[in-house]
Amino acid sequence: MSKLKSIVSEGAGHINPVDVADYLRIGGYDGLKKAVAMKPLEVIEEVKKATLLGRGGAAYPSGRKWEHLFHIPETPKYIVCNADEGEPGTFKDRLLMSKLPLRLIEGITIAGCVFGAKAGYIYVRGEYRKIQRRLLEAISRAKDAGFLGKNILGKFDFDIHIISGAGAYVCGENSALLNSTEGRVGRPRIKPPHLAEVGLFLQPTLVNNVESLCSIPYIVTAGGEAFCKLGRPDSGGTKLVCLSGHVRRRQVYEVPLGGVTLRELIYDPEIGGGLPDGQRLKFFHLGGQSGPIGSPEQLDTVYSHRELGKAGLSVGSGAVVVMNEDVGLIDYLTGVTEFFLHESCGKCVPCREGNKQIYKILKKLAKPGEATAADLALLRRLVTTMISASFCGLGQTAAVALNTAWKHFKGEFEANVDQSKPAAAA
Ligand SMILES: Cc1cc2nc3c(=O)[nH]c(=O)nc-3n(C[C@H](O)[C@H](O)[C@H](O)COP(=O)(O)O)c2cc1C
Ligand code: SF4
């Protein structure tokens, strides 16, 4: 029996993405039609029952987020879709937006209906120019068909706007994303206040990822329980997984959360198909550059938020980057750190300086005899400081790959260290 599912991605590649009639044929807009006839709290109850953990990376329960926002009395409220997809190794929102833009529009419109919002925004990664055009086309078609704009299904008004990012990874962080949407510098805001209270234009705001919002039509149509049962009670539904690196079949797969192991993801002939040309697995990197690195001994871990969490791993954005034995760990981590060094917004010291110092030490570790034991000790201190003292998620997660790799491959960090040298720091 196939391990793959087709729920959130159902219809991808089989319909004309912007044709409303095609979308209706696969059950499109059933969710919105149902939602407008329900009380807002009934819809939120379904989202809670679904145990939908945010698909943007932080895995925050969407039901709780929706309930919190609902009880904030201030209006107007805004709906914002995080389509920045800046996490390296992540390309599933691109698939949803290019193949099923109407599903995303439907999900956002359901949220608009629940919260009585008049406007929604999709903040799209700047590099996704073609997708931005496709979304604009889909928005226009949805309006023509009466599913967006004035008097939707005879019940409410709601419009969706497209905002283009400009290529900064930090703008995927939800508060930086709102600043950028407002035309300000894309730097994170201090929290609290939560964005549900003080969000876009300082108004109550819902921020959800593309995949999270694309799950909403199914949740409303089939019910939260049905969605939850596709996965596990603690992490409901399916997840789009992005397989890349040294694996045969690099693409997006939709799998039931808790229904496959990491081994199946990488080696099953229907999914990753294993490494090519007899290559052997050295490690895998989950959830993007900000996620943990795992070793082959962890391959039998079940792919769900809880099981991965117990193993010190995480789902994150859904990226699974596979690396073979030829990859030098220090080289790989240098690349990861270079990314964060480049993307750090510079607002806080632990991240701005921490990434710089880690980069320097990794460069030393790459050359035999250059680094000392004191460098390794400093590296460990920097990692702890960055994780605990950085202002936003970027700095807090920048050293997660390094920290987890340390657990499995300590020997590789120590290989080039000259133990005879005095313990002078970097
Ligand atoms: C540096 C950084 C980059 C992020 N990039 C993204 C992104 O590209 N897309 C996304 O959906 N969430 C991203 N997030 C997570 C968002 O801050 C937020 O948790 C998410 O949009 C909430 O939606 P969800 O609950 O549906 O996942 C990022 C977080 C950080 C700290
Ligand atoms: S951790 Fe600090 S420097 Fe790094 S991106 Fe966040 S706010 Fe900017």
Entry summary:
With 426 residues, this protein is α/β, with parallel strands linked by helices.
Report the radius of gyration as a whole number of Å.
22 Å
Give the biggest beta sheet: 5 strands, mixed
CATH H-level superfamily of the largest domain: NADH-ubiquinone oxidoreductase 51kDa subunit
Strand order of the largest sheet: 3-4-2-1-5
How many helices? The count is 18
> How many beta strands in the DSSP annotation?
10
Low-confidence stretches are none
Bound molecules: flavin mononucleotide, iron/sulfur cluster
* Mean pLDDT over the residues: 97
CATH class of the largest domain: Alpha Beta
CATH architecture of the largest domain: 3-Layer(aba) Sandwich
Helicity range of the residues? 40-55%
State the CATH topology of the largest domain: Rossmann fold
**In angstroms, what separates the terminal alpha carbons?**
55 Å
